[in-house]
Design goal:
Strand order of the largest sheet: 8-7-6-11-10-9
Largest sheet: 6 strands, antiparallel
């Protein structure tokens, strides 16, 4: 045999991704040498060879032959050599183990003697013939059934064995069982398929069906189930088990979680895989052995489904009809399915929570609005649409300023922006407006949403309509500070405004006048014409006072028919007297109420700051005394000016 030529023809063997280059080359050399020795042993039987070899040389060759055989017998690859007629002339132990035959049962036989499937041995003979005709190597993958009865995906590289003068002498086959690698590739594809379904939002039952169907298809003869943890009852509920008997699924659904509660109940309790090779002999199945027997189940392997925090969400189980343990590939697939199941369950829970949250937000009485970081509107809920009168399409893509009242102070907007950019939530009152421009009050909060890089990407506005509350507050404020009948300031507000006016007058070194006005004989109006007429009279007097005085002047009804008036920034006595006279003239004009003409009169007391006093209490007392002195002079007379000097009545 031309070994150098053979090595040259096999130099690219290491490029085969499924064979180990160096290992294969070593295997080839071993086989070649073995075949050479085999042929040499055939030749040595002839007498003329015996005469030429010395006894020690023969012994050396025999030892070398044994070493080489031991070497190839320990290789994991399936190696065999056939002569030019297709008969086996050599094979290693891995090849014999796969067939489940001895060396004597293989050597000298053909493929059709060893493989019962006609399609298989005809294909082998055809591939051998192609190698003979092309004098080149050839690769092929096909499913073969070994001694275990299971199918294996075998990839075979066929090489020509060349003799003297490069003549074809037979075929060398080097095969590798790639079943496991093929299944791992299928598992990877399965994982990607499920992840794509999850990304598409497939329902949880569809995901479970995919996990179970793929596993049962990849390993015919097994049955799968998915059970889910019910935290309220601390039980396992059926998630999916299409191939298991209905009575079995009904009995298992509601299984208590605990150690010894079958494979799944124990796995859910411990959080660890539970492998039961023989259900009939395992203590975990003591209470369920008869049930499993009726269902034709003999082995059960259960893998807990856990989330990233280690919380058990359920179990993924594989059943076998005969006692057995999982292979490495099956354990890998169980772990993959458990991981995918956890993602699916968490995604379903999150989807449900998001759906609930979305419905809660959409139907919330609060106004909810989401904008991007530039305050461009992305989302508005139904309540805000209803309150503003806009369509959703009219708001999306618009800036939030569309809904903000035109008179909002820039300082408020700056405060909101600064608060949110600092990462805080702003709370406060502001005014929105509807599509007609009508403003309404809201209590609002603006919160930033950040991404994983801590960059603000969106803003969430949550607001409540407080217009009615503001109106009520205003009403309560008016009740607290304003006279309910006339709308003028009451005694409480009058005192507050007087204190403020005095401080301002002191700060700006100005004079201030205080008038006390009392209607004459008002009680007679109530007695003669009734309180309704009296009330209308008081309202008319209030209107006349407001019409006569400046906006900066403060008019207060302090009780009954008594009015106090603050005149800030008054020039002096003469100016105060002139204003008081204007007020008196306005008040004494006849009033017609319900067809009744009333002729009234009034008395006014007048005092000045700082000439007559510097504090509110003294000034009020002065004005009161001056008013009574005016009444003492005959009522409806010119205002009395109270001074520190003796009071004089004005002519």
């Amino acid at each position: 045999m031309n070994i150098s030529g053979f090595i040259a023809s096999s130099g690219t063997l290491g490029g085969n991704s499924l064979l180990l280059g160096g290992l294969v080359l070593t295997s080839i050399l071993c086989v070649v040498l073995t075949v050479q020795l085999w042929r040499f042993n055939q030749l040595k039987q002839k007498n003329h060879i015996r005469l030429r070899l010395k006894e020690d040389e023969y012994q050396c060759l025999s030892e070398s032959h044994q070493i080489l055989r031991n070497l190839i017998d320990h290789l994991p690859l399936l190696i065999a050599a056939k002569d030019q007629h297709g008969c086996y002339i050599e094979c290693n132990q891995s090849y014999l183990d796969f067939l489940g035959l001895s060396r004597n049962e293989v050597i000298g036989k053909c493929a059709r003697d060893l493989f019962t499937d006609k399609e298989t041995y005809l294909s082998m003979e055809q591939q051998d013939e192609q190698v003979r005709l092309s004098n080149a190597r050839h690769s092929q993958s096909r499913w073969l059934t070994g001694k275990s009865g299971e199918s294996h995906l075998i990839e075979t590289l066929r090489l020509p064995l060349l003799g003297c003068c490069d003549r074809f002498g037979g075929v060398l086959t080097i095969s590798e069982d790639i079943t496991s690698d093929n299944r791992m590739r299928q598992i990877d594809t399965h994982r990607n398929t499920v992840l794509e379904k999850l990304a598409e939002g497939s329902p949880l039952p569809d995901i479970f069906s995919e996990l179970v169907t793929f596993t049962e298809t990849l390993y015919p003869g097994i049955y799968c189930s998915v059970l889910l943890v019910d935290e309220l009852s601390n039980t396992l509920q059926l998630g999916a088990a299409p191939s298991l008997p209905g009575f079995y699924n009904k009995a298992v659904s509601g299984l208590s979680i605990g150690e010894g509660a079958g494979s799944c109940g124990t796995a859910a309790y411990t959080g660890r895989p539970v492998i039961v090779r023989d259900i009939r002999k395992h203590p975990y199945w003591a209470g369920f052995a008869d049930l499993a027997s009726r269902a034709g189940l003999a082995a059960c392997w259960s893998m807990p489904i856990k989330n990233r925090l280690g919380k058990v969400l359920g179990t993924f189980a594989i059943y076998y009809s005969s006692p057995s343990e999982p292979t490495r590939d099956q354990m890998e697939l169980m772990m993959v399915n458990a991981h995918l199941g956890a993602i699916a369950i968490e995604a379903a829970k999150m989807s449900e929570q998001l759906s609930q949250l979305s419905q809660a937000v959409e139907h919330s009485a609060s106004f909810v609005m989401i904008t991007d970081s530039d305050q461009q509107i992305d989302y508005v809920n139904h309540s805000l649409i209803e309150a503003t009168g806009y369509d959703e399409a009219q708001l999306k893509g618009q800036f939030v300023g569309l809904l903000i009242s035109d008179d909002e102070e820039p300082e408020l907007q700056n405060n909101i922006r600064d608060t949110v950019q600092a990462g805080d939530v702003w709370h406060g009152e502001r005014r929105f407006k509807d599509y007609k421009g009508k403003a309404f009050w809201v209590m609002s909060s603006v919160a930033p949403i950040r991404n994983d890089d801590n960059v603000i990407t969106h803003l969430v506005y949550v607001s409540e309509d407080i217009t009615a509350l503001k109106h009520e507050q205003e009403r309560m404020e008016r009740l607290a500070f304003y006279d309910a009948l006339t709308g003028l300031a009451n005694r409480r507000l009058f005192k507050d405004r007087l204190d403020i006016a005095l401080k301002q007058a002191q700060r700006q070194q100005q004079s201030l006048a205080l008038m006390y006005l009392d209607l004459d004989y008002f009680k007679s109006v109530n007695d003669d014409h009734g309180h309704e007429v009296g009330d209308e009279l008081l309202k008319e007097i209030a209107v006349r006072l407001q019409r006569t005085l400046r906006e900066s002047d403060v008019i207060a009804r302090i009780g009954g028919d008594e009015f106090n008036i603050i005149l800030p920034d008054i020039a002096g006595y003469e100016a105060a007297e002139w204003v008081a006279d204007k007020v008196l003239q306005a008040v004494i004009e006849p009033v017609v109420i319900h067809g009744v003409t009333l002729n009234i009169s009034a008395s006014i007391g007048l005092t000045l700051y700082p000439d007559d006093g510097i504090d509110a209490k003294q000034l009020i007392k002065n004005a009161d005394v001056a008013m009574y002195r005016s009444k003492a002079q005959g009522r409806n007379c010119a205002p009395a000016l109270h001074r520190l000097a003796p009071v004089r009545a004005l002519p």
